[in-house]
Amino acid sequence: MLEIRDFVTSLKHVPTPWGKALASGLNRDTDTPTGTHVQEALLTALELIRFEVLTNREFSKTYSRPLGDETQKKHIILLSRAFSLLPMQLKSQPWSGALNRDLLAFNSFVKALARSYRNLCEMLTLSFFLNGLVMKDRKDYFQISESLPFMSDHNVALGLVCKYYLEQFVEGKSLSEALKATENAFPTCQNVKDDLKQGFKFWQLLIKAVNILVIEESIDIAIGDMFKNADKWLEQNSINKL
C-alpha cells in the first residue's frame, strides 16, 4: 500500500521523502501518542498536505470564521483541521455542542480518503488470496477484515473542541479559563483535557514530518512556514501546555 502511494520506492523499497516524513513522525518518544489511530491520522495528514487540503485556507467565504485577528484565524483553522483527524472519547448520548461548516467540509475530504484507503487495503488483501499467496482454508476471515486499517470513519469532534478552546484564548481568557469554558460547552465529551493533550502531541508528530518534507524539498516552503508559524504561536503563548 505504501509503495502504491509513493511512500516507498517500487524497486528497492526504500522510503521516499514522503516515507521519511511518515517514519519520522512515527518514530515515537515515550511521551508521544501511540496506536493505530495515530498512524492512520498521520498518514491521512500527509496525504491531505500533498493534496493541499490540510491548509489554513478557508473553503468558502460564506462559512463562519474563527475568532481572533487574521493571523490567529489562520492558525486556528489549520490546528482544528489537524486535530479533527484524531478520534475523541464521547459519552453515549447525542452530540451537544457547536458545529462548524468549514470543519465538516474538511471532514468530507478525510472520509473520502479514508474510504479509498480502506478499499485499497481490502483489494490488496483479496489479491493475496486470488494469487495463492496465503492459505485460503482458514477460520479468521473476520479477524483479518477487522485488523485492516481505516476500519471506521472519524468525526470532527476534537477539531471542534480545539477550535473553541483556541478561540477562548484569543478572546482573552487564561488557559485554565479557556479549558473550563470548553468543558462546559461540550458536555458530550468524556475528557476534554486529555483529548486536547493527545491532539497537541499528535501536532508535534506532524510538525516533525513536515520538517522532513521541507528539508527534502517535497513541499513548498510556504506550506512549511504555515505549519511552523502555527507551531511557533502555540509555543510562544504556551497554549499547548495543559
Please, how many helices? 9
The first-to-last residue Cα distance is 37 Å
**Regions with little confidence, pLDDT below 50 for 5+ residues:** none
Indicate the mean pLDDT: 91
- The dominant shape is globular
Secondary structure: helix percent: 55-70%
Oligomer: single chain
Compute the number of strand runs: 0
Structural domains: how many = 1
Provide an overview of this structure.
This protein has 242 residues and is an all-alpha fold. It has one domain. 58% of the residues lie in helices and 0% in strands. It is built from 9 helices and no strands. The radius of gyration is 19 Å and the shape is globular.
Could you outline the blueprint of secondary structure elements for this entry?
Blueprint: H1 17-26, H2 36-50, H3 70-83, H4 101-130, H5 141-147, H6 157-170, H7 175-185, H8 192-215, H9 221-236
List the keywords:
single chain, 242 residues, 9 helices, 0% strand
Concise overview:
By secondary structure, the chain is an all-alpha fold. It has helices spanning 17-26, 36-50, 70-83, 101-130, 141-147, 157-170, 175-185, 192-215, 221-236.
